[in-house]
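Format notes (please read before filing issues)

Several people have asked whether sequences and structure tokens are stored in separate files. They are not. Every record keeps both together, in the order shown below: the sequence lines, then the token lines. Line labels are part of the format and must not be stripped during preprocessing.
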Amino acid sequence: MDTLSEYITVDMKPDQLKKIRKEMGARQKDLAKILNVPVRTYQNWEQPEGGKSHRQIPEDAADRVRCLSELMAGSQERGDHFPDEITWLQIPLRKMELQQLKSLAILNDKNLSFLVRECILMVMR
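Then the structure lines:
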């Protein structure tokens, strides 16, 4: 799998989104469910730019796809396997990692989802 840094652009292009999805081994309906959008909306994001049904990929959706892709790539490189039942915000976490993040959120008086996003973006830099 290629590194995430190849995909980081201001706007994610449809071919980049499709390539990431295929490398993850996911179907369009899988990512649509993770991103909480209708399958048709997701399909429109993968349509070539300038096409009649193409829609711009929202930045937050592109960020989530990039983060999930990077987490999965890192997991595969290290040989980690995350149990399916331990997922949170569609981001696989081990029980110990989730407990540590909850403790950090309480200590820093932050929302847990905000803290997870902050941690992921820090790792990506």
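For reference, the curators noted about this record: Residues 32 and 42 are 6 Å apart (CA to CA). The longest strand covers residues 87-88.
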